[in-house]
Design goal:
The complex is a heterodimer of chains A (432) and B (481). With 432 residues, chain A is an alpha/beta fold. Chain A is built from eight helices and 19 strands. Chain B has one domain. Classes of the chains: A alpha/beta (432), B alpha/beta (481). At the A-B interface, β18 and β19 of A face β22, β23 and β24 of B.
């Protein structure tokens, strides 16, 4: 890939900023920076980033020479989910905020420690960077070099965490740009259960760049429900690299809702490295304005006898742009795998676009795999049917869109959470 | 059933049946590629100045380009200086009738089962046979001539219809379209040209047989088909190459140009030498095929059965420019042993109310890798356009791979695009059902595979369908159990 001079400038600027960070002498970070420089920033010819102009956005909106902005936020009330009794871990511009965080689960259910300390005392070394390689993605390398703060969460064996845990990223861009690099390591020990919510929210009108990387390890017979809510109304540019590693007989269900932001890029990987696993991989993107949402997902079947089901749906309004890339890998020997994938899209305006690439790569013969992908618009006849019964055009449209979207909420078990998401979705669809 | 068993036995006991070389004295260019090679080819073919300039421009473009790395195939680096770019059977003047054709050559065709004399009399197909780059004989030309149809070798067309060639050459696949198209534009040796005048329905299937003969010669064919307003033509292309250990490069270009209300149907059965059981030898088939539906209500349909070649890199595409135009792509790609195929199509919807349909059936066996790569692009202006794609993969054995890379880019909100793909293997219950009825496993597999590919095979003209069915079974020999 030939980098343009402006790309090289930006890489140099970022590398320069690195030298000013507190951990610049750390060997692992320096290696990660070298990997970042070697891969280079993506441009429109980079296959994985063809439709996400992240480099241009970084160039235009951010000054990497400047240090992070300060914040005087002292209440998180408005960012919480109503009626949901949950533990909350807050990152403020990428730094863990002890005062704003609130853990309601007892220590016996949920063990939370500082990631840097847990690396130093060796507690998290068996897991840290075991599955998320720096070389996998340039922003994963960037995060490994820069991450300012992180949290290490452990759920002990055979424990069910009764109350959900929410990770809240607050980006305060009130006074100046906000650049944050955060990191998360979650280990669900054998037979444990957890509902995890990850959400970002921003304040202020300046540009925000948030690089986020997480590694989640789901051990044998453990169950994880993971919900990502991306309805940040600020000028958020986010690249989130997530990997969930599953062992034998583990169960996973995820739901990613993307509604706002300038440019949201999710690299969401699931490695099914065990037998008899179950994975439900759901997503919904409801876009308007100039939002670009790019979901790159990977379901990697490494071991035989597992089942995965992926469903991503999207509605694009305004000048928005949806991108979906779903890879399913079935490795040699991963026989008797069932893997399904579906991506459905509705374009509401002629200035919105969708680029989708559902990709199957199969190296085992005794498998059942399929994928489907559609792009279309609302059914005129269905609209007419509703109109003929006295329902206004707007309402009829919202009803049909809701029917389209609601299916993706299926895997969510928590009632308060589900009704909150339901309201969010209906609220947005009524405005389309 | 005994007949079916017989057929299977025949083909399973066969190795590559077209693997022999004819001793024809060849007139060759020196090895290697330079401006001199391009000039050599051009002068040997007594081409006009403008065409030489065109070739040189393509060559200079090619020098600046790099070989594409994105296909899902692996092969050792090609040494472009180690290839003979031009090889013509030695004959001072072109034959005007079959009697003048070198008897050796006639034998070659007879071995291939496409004896010109036979074909001329029995099947009613006009064959423009191409052996190592020079078109040797064209049959049925007079009959077609009466209708105003031009069907001749490319060099003849350059001599006799320069105005048409000048107008359409590179109009669908520009000389600098991609690395291999640029290479072809610089050194193309010969090929076929076909022109159907306004309102004429071509009364017979037109057909060429490509054959790579001399050792170490790459074959750089160029086919150009122009269908004027309201015309129809069905074109068949069949390819075989003798067994050789070294890899041979084939970089052809096919351009189809359909005017208003015209229809072009292009069928290919590709049976080139795929290499032996250990993956040694075989053809590299790097082909650029594209059709332009220039006029309203025009239609282009590609049908391909790909069983040969060590590596296939080929995406017959349709550019749907005219309103209400239609593109179709039907493909069966079979890979066995160490074969690699990265094939698919590209449907670019530009005009309003354009429709496209893609049916791709991949079958991988042995240690082969089979990829479908396709793009459906609905441009902003293409309102009410419609696409349906289906790509299925069938895996036989646990050492092969099937890959699907569909790109769907939609910029218009009135478009409807559907894509579906499945991957599966032949069900044990299906085999059991056949065994129960006394059909042995190999025959059962052939039966099931043929059923699986039926949707595509049905699109082929009769003569080809029979051959294609046999080829399918032949390629999959020994891949069960």
């Amino acid at each position: 890939m030939t980098a343009t001079t402006s790309d090289i400038d930006l890489i140099e600027k970022i590398s320069g900023a690195f030298k000013k960070t507190a951990d610049a002498k750390d060997n692992h970070r320096r290696e990660a920076l070298a990997t970042f420089q070697k891969i280079g920033l993506p441009n429109s010819k980079t296959e994985e980033y063809r439709f996400a102009p992240i480099t241009r956005a970084l160039e235009k909106n951010f000054d990497f020479d400047k240090t992070g902005s300060s914040s005087d936020i002292n209440s998180i009330e408005k960012f919480l989910i109503p009626n949901l009794d949950a533990s909350v871990i807050v990152f403020l511009n990428g730094i863990y905020s002890k005062t704003l965080s609130k853990i309601v689960s007892p220590e016996s259910e949920l063990r939370i420690s500082n990631l840097k300390l847990s690396i130093e005392n060796g507690e998290s070394t068996p897991y840290f960077q075991k599955y998320l390689a720096n070389s996998a993605d340039v922003f994963s390398a960037l995060n490994s070099a820069f991450w300012q703060d992180g949290i290490f969460i452990q759920v002990p064996a055979n424990t069910k965490v009764e109350k959900p845990l929410m990770i809240l990223h607050i980006n305060d861009a009130e006074n100046s740009q906000s650049i944050g690099h955060t990191r998360l390591l979650v280990v669900l020990q054998e037979g444990s259960e957890l509902t995890l919510i990850e959400r970002s929210a921003s304040v202020g009108a300046n540009a925000i760049f948030h690089s986020f990387a997480e590694e989640i390890i789901v051990k044998e017979k453990a169950t994880l429900d993971y919900i990502k809510i991306q309805n940040d109304e600020g000028k958020l540019h986010q690249v989130a690299n997530s990997i969930i590693h599953q062992s034998n007989e583990s169960k996973l269900s995820t739901f990613t809702l993307t509604m706002n932001g300038s440019l949201i890029r999710n690299n969401f990987n699931i490695a099914i490295d065990g037998e008899k696993c179950e994975s439900h991989f759901y997503g919904l993107y409801l876009l308007n304005g100039n939002t670009i949402a790019d979901n790159h997902t990977v379901v990697d079947h490494i071991k035989p006898n597992s089942h995965s089901n992926e469903l991503y749906k999207g509605v694009m309004d305004g000048n928005s742009k949806g991108v979906f890339n779903g890879k399913i890998f079935v490795r040699p020997h991963a026989q008797k795998t069932n893997a399904f994938q579906s991506n459905r899209n509705i374009l509401l305006t002629d200035t919105s676009t969708i680029n989708t690439k559902p990709q199957l790569e199969i190296w085992a013969d005794d498998v059942k795999c399929s994928h489907g992908c559609t792009t279309g618009q609302l059914d005129e006849e269905a609209l007419f049917y509703l109109r003929s019964r006295g329902i206004s055009h707007e309402e009829a449209k919202a009803m049909l869109l809701y029917a389209f979207a609601a299916e993706t909420l299926e895997p969510i078990k928590n009632h308060e959470l589900k009704s909150y998401l339901d309201d969010l979705i209906s609220g947005r669809l009524n405005k389309f | 059933m005994t007949k079916d068993n017989q057929v299977l036995e025949d083909i399973t006991s066969k190795e590559y049946e077209h693997g022999w070389a004819t001793d024809l004295e060849a007139d060759e260019s020196p090895k290697g590629l330079s401006e001199d090679t391009v000039r050599f080819i051009s002068s040997r073919k007594q081409e006009p100045e403008w065409l030489l300039e065109w070739r040189l421009k393509a060559y200079r473009n090619w020098l600046k380009m790099t070989e594409p790395k994105w296909p899902n195939v692996k092969y050792p680096k090609i040494n472009y200086q180690d290839i003979i770019y031009y090889s013509a059977p030695k004959k001072k003047t072109g034959p005007s009738s079959l009697d003048e054709v070198d008897p050796e050559l006639i034998k070659t065709f007879e071995k291939l089962g496409i004896s010109l004399t036979e074909q001329k009399r029995l099947s009613g197909i006009a064959v423009d046979a191409v052996i190592d780059s020079v078109s040797v004989a064209t049959t049925f030309k007079e009959k077609l001539g009466e209708l105003g149809i031009i069907f001749c070798s490319f060099s003849e067309a350059v001599r006799e219809h320069p105005e048409l060639i000048k107008k359409y050459l590179g109009s669908v696949v520009p000389m600098n379209d991609n690395y291999f198209a640029a290479l072809n534009s610089a050194v193309f040796s010969d090929g076929s040209f076909c022109y159907i005048p306004k309102g004429v329905r071509c009364p017979m299937e037109l057909s060429t047989y490509f054959r790579i003969n001399a050792a170490n010669t790459g074959q750089f064919e160029r086919t150009l088909i122009v269908a004027e307003e309201g015309s129809y033509v069905s074109y068949l292309e069949g390819c075989t190459a003798p067994m050789r250990d070294e890899n041979q490069l084939h970089a052809a270009v096919v351009e189809l140009y359909a005017m208003k209300d015209a229809e072009i149907k292009y069928s290919t059965v590709q049976n080139w030498y795929p290499g032996d059981k250990n993956g040694k030898g075989g053809i590299y088939n790097f082909v650029t095929k594209r059709g332009l539906c220039a006029g309203d209500h025009s239609k282009i349909s590609w049908t391909q059965v790909e069983t040969g070649s060590a590596i296939t890199w080929k995406y017959p595409s349709c550019v749907l420019k005219g309103d209400y135009s239609m593109g179709e792509f039907y493909s069966v790609a079979v890979t066995n042993n160490y074969q690699q195929a990265d094939t698919g199509t590209k449907m670019t919807h530009i005009g309003k109310n354009t429709r496209s349909r893609i049916v791709s059936k991949g079958i991988s066996a042995g240690k082969s890798q089979n990829s479908y790569r396709g793009q459906v692009h609905i441009m902003k202006r293409a309102t009410n356009s419609r696409n349906f794609s289906q790509c299925d993969s069938l895996l036989m054995g646990d050492q092969c791979g099937a890959h699907t890379f569909p790109y769907i880019d939609v910029e218009n909100n009135t478009a409807k695009v559907e894509h579906e793909a499945t991957t599966s293997k032949i069900g044990e219950d299906q085999i059991f059902y056949c065994l129960q009825r006394g059909i042995d496993e190999e025959a059962a597999v052939a039966l099931i595979v043929n059923g699986y590919a039926k949707e595509v095979l049905n699109q082929l003209p009769m003569e080809f369908a029979v051959e294609a069915q046999k080829l399918l079974a032949l390629t999959l020999e020994g891949s069960v159990g």
